[in-house]
Amino acid sequence: MPETLTAAAFAPFGTVIETAGAASLPINDGTTTRFHALATAEPGPGGEAIVSIFRASQWPRPVTIRGLERHPLGSQAFFPLSAEDWLVVVAEGARPGAADLRLFRARGDQGVQYRPGVWHHPLLVLAERQDFLVIDRQGPGENLEQIAVEPGAVIESAEPGCPFVYANAKRCPGGIHRIKAYGVRGRGRQREVRKYRVWCTLKGDHAGILSSHEGKQRMEFYPDELPDELLDWAWDSGMVEY
Amino acid sequence: MPETLTAAAFAPFGTVIETAGAASLPINDGTTTRFHALATAEPGPGGEAIVSIFRASQWPRPVTIRGLERHPLGSQAFFPLSAEDWLVVVAEGARPGAADLRLFRARGDQGVQYRPGVWHHPLLVLAERQDFLVIDRQGPGENLEQIAVEPGAVIESAEPGCPFVYANAKRCPGGIHRIKAYGVRGRGRQREVRKYRVWCTLKGDHAGILSSHEGKQRMEFYPDELPDELLDWAWDSGMVEY
Fold this sequence. Notes:
Two copies of one chain form a homodimer. By secondary structure, chain A is mainly beta. The first copy, chain A, has two domains: 3-154, Ureidoglycolate hydrolase (Jelly Rolls, Sandwich); 176-241, no CATH class. Helix content of chain A is 8%, strand content 40%. Chain A contains three helices and 18 strands. In chain A, the strands form five sheets. In chain A, strands 1, 8, 9, 11 and 12 form a five-stranded mixed beta sheet that branches. In chain A, strands 2-10-7-13-5 form a five-stranded antiparallel beta sheet, with no helix packed on it. The longest helix of chain A is centred in the last third of the chain and has 9 residues, at 228-236. The radius of gyration of chain A is 21 Å and the shape is globular. The two termini of chain A are 29 Å apart. Strand 5 of chain A pairs antiparallel with strand 4 (32-40) of chain B.
């Protein structure tokens, strides 16, 4: 399971860029609040801080961590430009292995800045596509190192768990990768939904398990049959089709 | 009327941060496109580039430009964290007046970086609230200068024009500040709306003009009675209630 991304938990790796808990001051005749100096770019000697946009698409599922990278000469900051959650994988130590990986789930209003030399995985987005503003280093010298992670570590919980429960009461170990809402009215917190249909990374709609009609029914849920956390996640991540 | 924000038009003032027309390269095993070095921070001698978040609310209406500011020691970059359009006001020259102002309408996927010493107005957002990631300078020395603009310049077109047409065929010079949609189904480009009701910055719902029933009708419009540009703007800016 991913850890929640907090400043304290992420301190060994760098900075969390977020307004929560940050020093702020009113500016511009009180029309704007400045959450000040959430991160300081470290472009290193001879380097300069540049602003880029990274357009990330999903890593192939299941997400398997086979390698990490680091930038010894400069910091690298990522901030999402849309509100979906995303994943951060980092590791301490000079030559980390699969057992050293730390997985954080970042909200769509949280960015991170990796300190120079911190091992991290390339962008892992949960949405189909997500843009990030990136502040990192440009300058002379070799600023990219890569290391293989053996054996590859599978991230089980990139998606929320499949809600399918077998007749023996065992829950399906798959994840939800698609969700469709029927009878949607309104939007945001006031949204009303009649029913959801979900698809699993392992078994699709689980249609082969029971007779097809019954099987289909098992993957359809009224809103109160699904965890609020799952539904919040599904809507926030833009996964819900309707 | 605002100018469209393009790299060429904005060149005297700094850089437009956007993917359109930018050099890009595939990275991270092809899962990510890097739009590279869209801006370079200029923190100046002794300064460092810091990352902050500015949470902007609307400037009081009508938006009146009464002053500008500039940062002689460092660049300042703004990138919106939600997709609403916003306004950029800048001016060339050492002591600009109202006649020197340039007004640009930036899309929600466009940022700008002001070069050191470029006169600009504090954040002018069109949405009720909008967050920006800001990359600017921290360091010794006085990095803020302000200048009054006399007489104040009113930005007429912060909002789209009121669609009300008087009996003498003159169009109301107000702007739309509120819009409500009825019978909304679906979302995004596939959205269907039965009818819109709009409110004007000058005359509200124009209810006093005609008999109240008729007056109300005049401010209700079927989708094909309003310009596409206005509707796109209204939805993109998050103004539409429904």
